[in-house]
Specification:
Blueprint lengths: L5 E7 L12 H4 L3 H4 L12 H7 L2 H4 L3 E7 L9 H10 L3 E6 L4 H8 L3 H4 L2 E6 L2 H6 L3 H13 L3 E7 L8 H12 L4 E3 L2 E2 L8 E2 L5 H9 L4 H9 L15 E5 L4 E3 L6 E4 L25 H4 L17 H4 L12 H6 L13 H14 L8 H17 L4 E5 L3 H12 L3 E6 L12 E2 L10 E4 L5 H9 L5 E4 L5
Parallel strand pairs: 1-2, 1-9, 2-3, 3-4, 4-5, 5-6, 12-13, 12-15, 13-14, 15-16
Antiparallel strand pairs: 7-8, 9-10, 10-11
Length: about 475
């Protein structure tokens, strides 16, 4: 059984975009300058070689799929081919979101060896009116058919938008002629309207909107229309572990778009990456990325239909009997990342949820029995590492929480380290981040999201064990 261990939504910097779609999310935010094609300096903080060496199967815990898109046209990202080739060489799968009009880049992917093409997928964004206006329809069709001819999986997807309503019949006829099937439909959303998120962007009534776009018989559209706005219902979310969002320009990794930093994948690369789940701390009322967070990653499994598989949102059977997805991509799109992870213990869930709620400034109540299990597991883990006395680095909300938990676990906190060391009043010594405490067997870094930056500095001033709060249970 082939599947992916993590689904990593990956944002790359681009030189701009060669199209100007009215419904573009970037344009909705007024960031038109991002789309202007021009030379931009210092798009990446790290070299391609460094980034690829940081994203090995071993460091990530398993084979992943990198879902690569940009703020603009993805294939206008400098070094995009070299980045994708490197990730494929590492053994990962690649999905590229593209308007499929940059022929010179697509030709590079077509020339990859078959082993790599088997793990490659293009999500071909279909901007019919804009392609037609710029005389790029033939380029789009030629490039997609070249992908298919060379054994590369693809899917064609149109964003529902009112601008194309008068041309829908023409659009359908053209796609069936060129690709043997209708495109899938992604429901366009407003990024600017106030109220419950998301809001579908349309001048049509709800009934008219559904009837119009339902004609495409796209399981993706059906899913969005019924399950897109399911509330979280206080579920434990594994985004940040099964899936996440990576800024390729810097290495910063988030649980999902719009949430806070978990780690930096390109720092401290001699150590494994420390992943942390969103738990029950998501600040959004709905999972607006549910069609990949839930259906492909399985981040929350309680409210979502387990029988829906991601391949349904991407494949089409053509009039000649062929399919858009290749067998290898169809196989991985038939499983959820959650199938390849061991479940967390109840105590670890309780503990990580407490950390994340502190991170997001949320109130949290822990049942006394659950709390006792947490302290028991922490005590066992630290004692097994021969750690009886610790120093806590960072005495903010999470640091104070850990201080109480460790003391209740029978682990003595003998000192603190904090950049506010002159302001903190405590019964134990408080050191600056530059001073090495003599006390303790280990230093526990409470600021887990900056651990990759903090740990190397600590190693320069002490030989004590350095642990992240993520590590102690």
């Amino acid at each position: 059984m082939n599947g992916i261990y993590r689904f990593i939504n990956t944002n790359v910097p681009t030189l701009g975009c060669n199209l100007r779609c009215d419904y573009c999310y970037i344009r909705q935010h007024g960031d038109e300058d991002i789309l202007d094609i021009k030379k931009r300096d210092s798009l990446f903080k790290y070299s391609v070689e460094h980034m690829i060496s940081a994203l090995t199967v071993e460091r990530l815990g398993g084979v992943c799929m990198f879902n690569i898109s940009g703020s603009g046209e993805t294939l206008l990202c400098p070094d995009i081919f070299e980045i994708c080739e490197g990730l494929l060489r590492n053994g990962h799968y690649i999905a590229i979101i593209s308007n499929c009009t940059v022929t010179k880049e697509i030709e590079k992917f077509i020339r990859l060896k078959q082993e790599y093409r088997d793990r490659l997928f293009f999500k071909a964004s279909f901007h019919y009116q804009e392609l037609k206006r710029r005389n790029l329809l033939n380029t789009y069709a030629s490039n997609i058919n070249a992908l298919k001819k060379n054994g590369i999986a693809f899917s064609i997807e149109i964003v529902s938008n009112d601008g194309v309503l008068s041309e829908l019949e023409e659009l359908k006829a053209w796609t069936e002629k060129e690709f043997g099937a209708l495109p899938h439909v992604l429901a366009g959303r407003s990024e600017t309207k106030l109220g419950e998120f998301p809001k579908f962007e349309t001048c049509l009534s709800e009934e008219e909107f559904f009837e119009t776009w339902d004609e495409f018989k796209s399981p993706l559209f059906d899913y969005q229309y019924t399950d897109y706005v399911l509330p979280h219902n206080d579920e434990f979310c594994h985004a940040g572990v099964y899936t996440g969002s990576l800024e390729m320009a810097t290495g910063v990794f988030f649980a999902c778009p719009g949430n806070k930093k978990i780690t930096n994948m390109f720092e401290n690369t001699e150590e494994p990456i420390r992943f942390a789940p969103m738990a029950k701390a998501c600040p959004f009322p709905y999972c607006f990325c549910g069609f990949f967070l839930q259906v492909l990653a399985g981040a929350c499994n309680e409210s979502y239909n387990p029988n829906v598989v991601f391949g349904e949102f991407r494949d089409r059977k053509c009039t000649d009997g062929s399919h858009w997805l290749t067998p290898s991509i169809k196989e991985v799109f038939s499983h959820k990342c959650s199938e390849f992870h061991n479940p967390l213990t109840s105590a670890k869930k309780t503990y990580l949820n407490a950390l994340m709620k502190k991170r997001y400034g949320m109130e949290n109540e822990i049942n006394i029995d659950e709390y006792n299990e947490v302290t028991k597991e922490i005590k066992y883990k630290l004692k097994s590492l021969k750690i009886d006395k610790v120093v806590i680095y960072g005495y903010g909300g999470i640091g104070q929480l850990i201080y109480d938990i460790l003391n209740d676990a029978g682990i003595e906190v003998v000192a603190l380290m904090d950049k506010r060391y002159k302001e903190i009043e405590a019964k134990i010594p408080v050191y600056s981040p530059e001073d090495a405490p003599k006390e303790g067997d280990a230093i526990i870094v409470s600021i887990f999201y900056d651990y990759t930056e903090i740990a190397p500095k600590l190693r320069n001033i002490t030989e004590k064990k350095i642990l992240s709060v993520i590590d102690i249970i």
